[in-house]
Every structure is written in structure tokens, then in C-alpha cells.
Amino acid sequence: MVTGLVGPNGAGKSTLLRLLAGIDSPDAGDVTFDGTPLHALAPSARARRVAHLPQSAQAQWPLSGRDVVSLGRLPHGAGFDRLSEADVQAVARAMSRTGTTAFAGRRLDHLSAGERARLLLARALATEADVLLVDEPTAALDPAYQLEAMTALRGEADRGVAVAVALHDLALAARFCDRLILLAGGKVLRHGAAAQVLTPALLEAAYGVAFELVVLGDRRLPVPIARSGPTGDER
Ligand SMILES: Nc1ncnc2c1ncn2[C@@H]1O[C@H](COP(=O)(O)OP(=O)(O)OP(=O)(O)O)[C@@H](O)[C@H]1O
């Protein structure tokens, strides 16, 4: 299942992902994993089961692409000079699924922002966690790699991984997510299938922008037309 988190800047998408990853703790309520409170899991066990890729990770490390992706195996006890056969295979699979195999020998800090973003997505995939939390993975990517990244996330979901992804691109959200959660002002406005969530009225309420729906095959994709509500601080 791919769950998309959509909503305007400051809606709470990243905050929700950080809570789900156990990076932040909720002021109220609890996050549970298979019935166990997340904070009751040892950090290493949590890291093996829940992978989190933060927004626009600005990593500029002088590491090879392969070493960067290998970092995703740390929760499994791996080190750069201590990779099991399972680690090596997981790293190779993640690089293949993100189209980053060609960067295996390139230094991360010598790559473009989009190329780095793809390697960092590969690092998250390499963990082979049960839950994959990804914050705006397509922001730095050109259209071809946006599709490739979303296809990679869909592939993970088809293998049984629970994927939650924050997205600003509503067309990608409509096409690749099984269900969407529309957030605004820290609250859920609606959750459900794309057709139920991405209505012009709800989107206008969330973003202060008038939307029209464009028909693509059996889907209706929202296109922003013009601002209709308050801006920035007024929102
Ligand atoms: N570390 C923090 N300390 C205090 N407030 C924060 C912190 N991080 C985020 N916030 C606030 O929490 C709210 C939600 O922020 P969050 O980053 O979750 O939004 P978002 O939906 O991911 O936005 P964007 O689309 O801009 O990335 C915002 O008002 C933000 O200013």
C-alpha cells in the first residue's frame, strides 16, 4: 500500500512522517508498530523495520555511491568493510530499482542534486524495512526520474512494504498512491482514494487555490489554476 501525504507548506506532512519514524514523540497519543509502542522498540530494531528518508536530504559526503547505499544496511549490523552477502545483494537491488547502479563508484558530493536524491532513496530502499517513510522524494528530480522514483516506491509496496510518501505533485499522488491523506494546519481534511480526496473544493480549502480536473485515462488529475484564497502568513 502506498499512502500519499498531501497538503500545503506547513500542513504537517514531515511532522507526521517524523512521528511515524520515532524521530519525534507525540505530545498526545501513541505511535504503535504491530501493536507495540514505537518507543518500546530498541533503536536498532526500529531502524531495521522503519526506514525514513527526510526531505531534501542535503548529504554532501565524500563517499562513493555504493557506500552511501550501504549505509542503509547499518541497522543490520553492516559496515563499509563488513557487508554480508545479503547486504551486498540488498544494496545491488536498491541501486537497480532506483537506476543508480552507474553511480556506484562516483562520489556523492560530485553528483547533481537529483542524482544524490536518487542515491539517498536507494539507501532507504536498501534497509528493506517493513515500513518506508519518504518525504518529498521527487522534489529534485526531472520527469523521467520522478516516474522512476514513484515506480520504485510502488514496487516496494507491491512486495508488501507499507509506504508513506509526502508529495507536492498532486498528479503523481493521484497516479501512484493507493490512498491519500490531505493535511492542512496540522489536521486531516480527508483521507481515502484519490478521487475522494483530490476534489477541487477540498483542494481549494487546503491550498487557497482554484483547481480543475484533467482527465487522463480513468483518472482525474488536479491542475492548479489560480490563487483564490489568502497567502502565506494569512493562511
Ligand atoms: N522542529 C520544529 N520545531 C517547531 N515547529 C516546527 C518544527 N518543524 C516544523 N515545525 C512547524 O510545524 C508545522 C508543520 O511543519 P511540517 O514541516 O510538518 O510541514 P510540511 O507539511 O511538511 O510542510 P512543507 O510542505 O513545507 O515541507 C509548521 O508550522 C512548521 O513551522
Please characterize this protein's 3D structure.
GO terms for molecular function: ATP binding; ATP hydrolysis activity. It comes from Vineibacter terrae. InterPro entries: AAA+_ATPase (IPR003593), ABC_transporter-like_ATP-bd (IPR003439), ABC_transporter-like_CS (IPR017871), P-loop_NTPase (IPR027417). Keywords: ATP-binding, Nucleotide-binding, Translocase, Transport. The two termini are 32 Å apart. The chain has a six-stranded mixed β-sheet with strand order 4-5-6-1-7-8, sandwiched between helices. A two-stranded antiparallel ribbon has the order 2-3. The chain has a single domain, classed as P-loop containing nucleotide triphosphate hydrolases (Rossmann fold), CATH 3.40.50.300. The relative contact order is 0.16. The protein is an alpha/beta fold. The site of adenosine-5'-triphosphate (ATP) has 9 residues, from helix 1.
* Beta strands, count: 10
CATH superfamily: P-loop containing nucleotide triphosphate hydrolases
- Listing every helix as H and every strand as E from the N terminus to the C terminus, the arrangement reads EHEEHEHHHEHEHEEHHEE
- Ligand roster: adenosine-5'-triphosphate
User: Which CATH class applies here?
Assistant: Alpha Beta
**How large, in whole angstroms, is the Cα Rg?**
18 Å
Beta-strand proportion: 15-25%
Which runs of at least 5 residues are low in confidence (pLDDT < 50)? none
Helicity, in percent? 25-40%
Biggest sheet character? 6 strands, mixed
CATH architecture: 3-Layer(aba) Sandwich
| Cα distance spanning the termini | 32 Å
CATH-defined fold name: Rossmann fold
Average pLDDT confidence is 92
State the helix count. 9
